C-alpha cells in the first residue's frame, strides 16, 4: 500500500460510525448511488474496492460464493468476467440468479445486489479480453478453471504451450471465457452507524423507476 493510501485509510477509518453527517441519502437512481459509493471507496485507499463476492446456487438449492472483480457497472447491470466452464458458470447457467456483495470496511458500508444473470455479448467480452495484459490472456487459455489439476507443472506447461501457439499474433478470445451481467432487481445499501442503529435502504424496480424502502437495521 502506498504512503498516500495509508494516510487515506487512517483518515477514513471509522467515519461511518463517528461522523453523524454521513447519513445515507437516498436518490432516485441506485446505479448512480452505487457509483458514488464505489468512488468514495476508491478514494478512501481501500485496496481493490471493486472486489465483490458472487454467489450462485445449484438447482438443488446449495449456494456457493467466491470473490471476483467488478469490471463494468451501468444501467444494464453489474459485469464480471470468468471462465464459462467454471463451477460458478455451471451453476449460473443452470440457475440464472446471483447475488453480489461488497463490503468496504473502512467506510462501514455494505452493498447487496440480487438479480438475474446473463452472458454479455461476445464482442463485449472480446473487447475486455484484449484490454488485459498478454499474461492474463494466456492465463485464461491455460486454466481449466475449477477442474482438478494434477500439478502446478501441468499448468506451467500449458502456459508455455499457448505462449508458443500464439507467438507474434493477437491472442483470440477463448470461446469458454467471457462476461456475465447481473441485472439487479434488488439493491441494498447499508451504512454502519453508532449503537448498531445502521441505515439500510433497498431499491426494487417498479414500473419505469425504483421503489425505495427503509429497513430496520
Ligand atoms: C480479489 C479476488 C478477485 C478475483 N477476481 C476474479 C475474477 O474477476 N474472475 C474470476 O473468474 N475469478 C476471480 N477470482 C478467483 C475466484 O475467487 C475463484 O477462485 C475462481 O473464479 C473459481 O471459482 P469457481 O470454482 O467457484 O468457479 C478472484 C479472487 C479474488 C480473491
Q: Can you offer a commentary on this structure?
A:
Helix content is 32%, strand content 34%. Strands 1, 2, 3, 4, 5, 6, 7, 8 and 9 form a nine-stranded antiparallel sheet that branches. The protein is globular and about 55 Å long. The protein has one domain (3-139, 173-215): Pnp Oxidase, Chain A, CATH 2.30.110.10. With 217 residues, it is α+β, with helices and mostly antiparallel strands. A hairpin with a 4-residue loop joins strand 5 and strand 6 (109-119). The model has no long low-confidence stretch (mean pLDDT 92). It has seven helices and nine strands; from the N terminus they run αααββββαββαααβββ. Residues 48, 51, 64, 66-69, 80-83, 86-88, 145-146 line the site of flavin mononucleotide.
Query: What is the 3D shape?
Result: globular
Could you tell me the number of beta strands? 9
CATH architecture: Roll
Radius of gyration: 20 Å
In DSSP terms (H or I, runs of 4 or more residues), the helix count works out at 7
Structural class: alpha+beta
Low confidence ranges? none
- Average pLDDT works out at 92
Largest sheet: 9 strands, antiparallel
Q: Element order, helices and strands?
A: HHHEEEEHEEHHHEEE
Describe the oligomeric state of these chains in a short phrase. Answer: single chain
DSSP helix fraction? 25-40%
Instruction: Estimate the strand proportion.
Output: 25-35%
Full CATH superfamily name: Electron Transport, Fmn-binding Protein, Chain A
Number of domains: 1
Distance between the termini: 33 Å
CATH topology: Pnp Oxidase, Chain A
List the bound ligands. flavin mononucleotide
Q: What's the CATH class label?
A: Mainly Beta
